[in-house]
Amino acid sequence: MSDSPTPDTVSSHHGAAGESVIKAGYDERLTNQDLAPLKEQKWTWYNIFAFWMSDVHSVGGYVFAGSLFALGIAAWQVLVALVVGIVAVNILCNLVAKPSQIAGVPYPVTTRISFGVKGANIPAIIRGSIAVVWYGIQTYLASVAFGLLALKFWPGLAPWGDVEEHGFLGLSALGWAGFILMWVLQAFVFWNGMETIRKFIDFCGPAVYVVMLALAAYLVAKAGWGNVSLDLSVGEGLSGWSSITMMISAFALVVSYFSGPMLNFGDFSRYGKTFGEVKKGNFWGLPVNFLFFSLLVVCTVSAAVTVIGTDDDGNIITDPVHIVDKIDNTTAAVLGVLTFAIATIGINIVANFVSPAFDFSNVAPTKISWRTGGMIAAVGSVLITPWNLFNNPTAIHYTMDTLGAVIGPLFGILIADFYLVKKQKIVVDDLFTMRPEGAYWYRNGWNPVAVGATVVASIAPICVVIFGTAYQASFTWFIGAALGAAVYWIGMKVVPTQLIHDASVEARITTDIEVDAAGEIVVDVPDAEPAVTSTGEETASS
């Protein structure tokens, strides 16, 4: 007769998100082949570096970098704020990367450590919802490039680009064609799995730089180096205390810009060979890459003022798609438009497709796979009609800033829990168990302290969004992160254990993983508590 599997029986499963390892004791309500720990982590520092290149090289990233140099402060002040801000992002990304890298699981699974195996759906749904909105907006922005390209070759299509004459739900027929084309291209890359996405960003990151450098060289050569300036501000610049406050705002804007991908960076750091490889990739992909990208952008935009002029309102054009569209060189314009469209596909997939795929899969692992979760996000991005949202400054301000205000608390709770409360110890097997004695069961699968900290820490930044100024709103992430970390840490210290865990169950651990300063797993943990085997017998920890 055949032997029945024991709770420790391990089986390998190859899913779209990678090959994973599932133990027989893992609860199916928490497990599928995409959420389970990876069998092998293969990504090197270059793959992480390419990830950040793809995350930065987009129409939105281009406009954002250019806008920093138009804040009215001196170029050196912008550069200082850029360097300090991106170094802070680098440090924060290293912090959030560690739990996912050592456990080989995506972001929503690591949130089970602090929120509980059921409570983790709160951060998953919040982050997934934000990604859906941005996915739609980025797809729309990239689709504009195809519309401009079509009109350049076939001017007769102009009537089809008029939303009043041929429009539906606020978007012209030509706009719909470009949006659907972009939607399908992104879905095709995503559907082929994480390995295809890795190859895509490995190629596109450097390729986009080649075209960006060529575009910058072309514009600078035509404008003359003497007409290139790092100052894009119009009118009198700021000085004194005003310039200092604007520098602080610029720093905050840099961190806030990366807050989304920073929160769910574990979705990618889980693939890193070692934590050292992840840190190296972050260094080259963030401080080095973003600073070089920003300088390249400001030189290009500045030279473009001389070559193509300003827009109809006299403002500097920072949108790269519109810059290349106005270049009097068809080949350069076509190459430029296609490049920035591809670049936006890259950031959309890594920042706004992969994240909700894992997040929504975490909600119902048996019914929603990684692919299904991604397609839910893709369909949702159409239903919200992102062009209407993007073209309404008030609506997008309150929608995105309110959702973004909650990202800070989620980040603060994750970091405070892993580093201050759990002391970098992960009970990997208990991430996938519904047993009441599991380390992350808390009260019926929910950690009331984490839920309460999220609510309390979100109130202040949301109030700032609604009642504060635009300047104050740039600090909502910091307010939320600090409050989230503080409230959670204090709560785990002062709230009675019987209120955090089910009164009848004493939380025990089945596995104890400790990580040294270099990010390597320590096998022997002399001071560890007795471990519990899958059969419930206590053994000495080894």
UniProtKB/TrEMBL annotation:
Location(s) in or outside the cell: Membrane
The keyword Metal-binding appears for this protein: no
Pfam families in alphabetical order: Transp_cyt_pur
Superkingdom: Bacteria
UniProtKB keywords: Membrane, Transmembrane, Transmembrane helix
Membrane topology, from the record: Multi-pass membrane protein
Main location: membrane
Regions crossing the membrane: 62-92, 132-154, 166-191, 203-221, 241-265, 286-310, 330-351, 372-390, 402-421, 449-468, 474-491
UniProt family annotation: Belongs to the purine-cytosine permease (2.A.39) family.
Protein name: Allantoin permease
Species of the source: Gordonia paraffinivorans NBRC 108238
